[in-house]
Amino acid sequence: MTGENCGYPIYVKKIENRMARMLKLSGLNEELTPHSLRHTHTSLLAEARVGLEEIMERLGHADDEITRKVYLHVTKTMKKEASQKFSELMKNL
After folding, report:
1. Which of 45, 49, 51, 70 has its Cβ near the most Cβ atoms within 10 Å?
2. CA angle centred on 30, ends 79 and 41, rounded to 5°
């Protein structure tokens, strides 16, 4: 990772505490963390077909290995799209 804070706010604990309080007040999943939002954001970028280079830049990664292994898992939407594409291919043969 590049940069002094690797994409994280300077006061991580303050953000974590505030988020935990807001999740509790709202009745949402209290196990979520700011890092959970990072993963969600990255998954949504991948579903939107944003390129690997652009995603790496947003995350502050210099090496694509971390981006691929940790963040770019295949989502349900992407699996469904792959299945539909294969089905269309087979229909056209």
Report:
1. 45
2. 40
What six digits make up the tokens of 79?
């699996």
The pair of three-digit structure tokens given for residue 78, joined into one six-digit string: 């992407």
- 45-83 per-position pLDDT tens digit: 988 889 899 999 999 999 888 888 887 777 778 888 888
For residue 11, the tally of other CB atoms under 10 A from its CB is 10
Q: Could you tell me how many helices (H) and strands (E) the chain has, helices first?
A: 5, 0
Q: Where are the domains of the chain?
A: 12-91
Give the three-class secondary structure for 28.
coil
**Count of Cβ atoms closer than 10 Å to residue 86 Cβ:** 10
The widest CA-to-CA distance across the chain, in whole angstroms, is 58
